[in-house]
Structure to design on (275 residues):
């Protein structure tokens, strides 16, 4: 399989997964007797030959306060300054990238915010990256154990180093200016390029695990009651989420430096927050 075939397979997978996630989340809304659906917006880079994407957002649901599911496939050339920060792009700055990103902010503060993304990037090198992490404003130990157990399983099934990815996640999702973690972690991986077929299988299974994990965590708490104090905790935690995404998030910086759509890039921000 040549590199162009690999790009095609990755691109099609991310599009398929976007559809599956949107359908799954709409079914969850329906369980709460909500008719809310995703609204999709398709965008292109200023040079249409350099690709674009589709971001889908569901707002003001009975379950989801705001959830965005973005998929894009883009190419181009990084600026001389930014290319130094991207593996394999140091010399000529050329790149191709395809991926999916999901951020779900829940109506009920007892249900955690959930983030997931996977991507395939090509410069003079090529690799997969991504991860899943959980940000509860009210911790639930059983939920946390279940979450990490599922991630450990998918790593083990694919001979991937779970402890390495877990530590990487803990280190990455940390607000150094506040000396606190964003959430309870998960897995974060990058520069995976050992065996393309096996690596791609792992990335697909991480995506399907995300669907399984979110369905269980969300559905089992659909009818959980909460109060004003719980909601206040959620809004403060969302403020921390915003701080991280604007100050540290590599995906945000990559999108803005690769000519991405600003609304799609900032879909990760919650609809309301508090400081």
């Amino acid at each position: 399989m040549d590199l162009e075939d690999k790009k095609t397979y990755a691109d099609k997978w991310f599009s398929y997964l976007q559809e599956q996630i949107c359908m799954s989340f709409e079914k969850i809304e329906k369980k709460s007797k909500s008719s809310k659906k995703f609204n999709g917006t398709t965008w292109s880079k200023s040079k249409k030959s350099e690709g674009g994407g589709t971001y889908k957002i569901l707002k003001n649901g009975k379950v989801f306060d705001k959830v965005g599911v973005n998929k894009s496939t883009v190419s181009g050339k990084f600026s001389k300054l930014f290319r130094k920060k991207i593996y394999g792009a140091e010399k000529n700055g050329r790149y191709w990238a395809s991926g999916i990103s999901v951020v779900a902010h829940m109506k009920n503060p007892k249900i955690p915010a959930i983030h997931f993304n996977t991507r395939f990037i090509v410069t003079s090198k090529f690799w997969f990256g991504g991860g899943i992490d959980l940000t509860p404003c009210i911790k639930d130990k059983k939920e946390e154990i279940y979450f990490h157990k599922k991630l450990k399983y998918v790593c083990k099934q694919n001979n991937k180093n779970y402890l390495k990815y877990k530590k990487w996640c803990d280190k990455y999702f940390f607000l150094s200016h506040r000396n606190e973690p964003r959430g309870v972690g998960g897995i974060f991986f990058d520069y995976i390029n050992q065996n393309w077929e096996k690596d791609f299988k792992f990335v697909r299974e991480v995506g399907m695990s995300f669907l399984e994990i979110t369905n269980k965590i969300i559905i089992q708490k659909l009818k959980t009651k909460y109060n004003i104090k719980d909601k206040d905790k959620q809004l403060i935690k969302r403020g921390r989420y915003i701080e991280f995404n604007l100050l540290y998030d590599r995906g945000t910086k990559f999108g803005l430096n690769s000519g991405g759509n600003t609304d799609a890039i900032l879909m990760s921000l919650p609809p309301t927050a508090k400081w």
